[in-house]
Amino acid sequence: MPLFSSYFAKLKIYLICLASLITYQTVYAKEYNSLDEFRPMLSNEWQLVKHDRQRHIKTYTKREDDKAIRSFKVEGLLKTKLSTLTRVLMDFENYSDWYWEVIESKLIKQVSPTEYYLYLVHRAPYGIPNRDVILHAIVSPQTDTQNYILLTVKAAPEMLPIQPKLVRMPAENMTIKFTPLSQEVVQIEAEGYIDPGGQVPAWDANLIQRNAPYSVTLGLQRMTLQDRYLHNHRELPFRVYDNHNLP
């Protein structure tokens, strides 16, 4: 009997060790694969990051020759009217409801119906100070020869004094093109570059560049379904044509 007890005890120890080894290899493989998120892209051509076929969203990144942080691009189709989408974008005080990690947003200056200065505070990853940014946004409305709205955004870091406990972002620059394909579908095409400033690991910043564009596009789609925008008929500061490219 002691012989059998010794045998089963050894077998139990062996099985525990084997299970531990398998678990370790599985975890290691997952961690190793996750490093793909942090490896630098050697190509300066656009690389597909995510293709959500169900929601019709594609995101890309590429490595710029003179920058440590990658640029981003997003292409998508939103099921909404262009006027509804514009109302979401013009609601500057509520960007925290949909924009990437925004905890504060406000309009600080309106130059004209198509030119604005905005102030945003972004929540940073744990252990890193939050970021703030001043954005200079210029809208190029639709015309008889331009069926899309073009939004150009560029950081204006010197416009306001540096705020305590916040790091001022030197760049959150992008161009966004909104084209109505019908009265119920809008194509979005955006390219940009974000520099969080301060001391942030390049892999952390690049991870944000990979994930934020997709999250923002989903946020826009979600917001356009809310009654406060869907059934809002207040006049917009510039003319918007929901079916401008249709015969």
From TrEMBL:
TM segment ranges: none
Molecular function GO labels: lipid binding
SUPFAM superfamilies from the UniProt entry: Bet v1-like
Entries under Gene3D superfamilies matching the protein: 3.30.530.20
InterPro entries associated with the record: START-like_dom_sf, START_lipid-bd_dom
Residue ranges of domain START in the record: 46-208
Protein name (Swiss-Prot/TrEMBL): START domain-containing protein
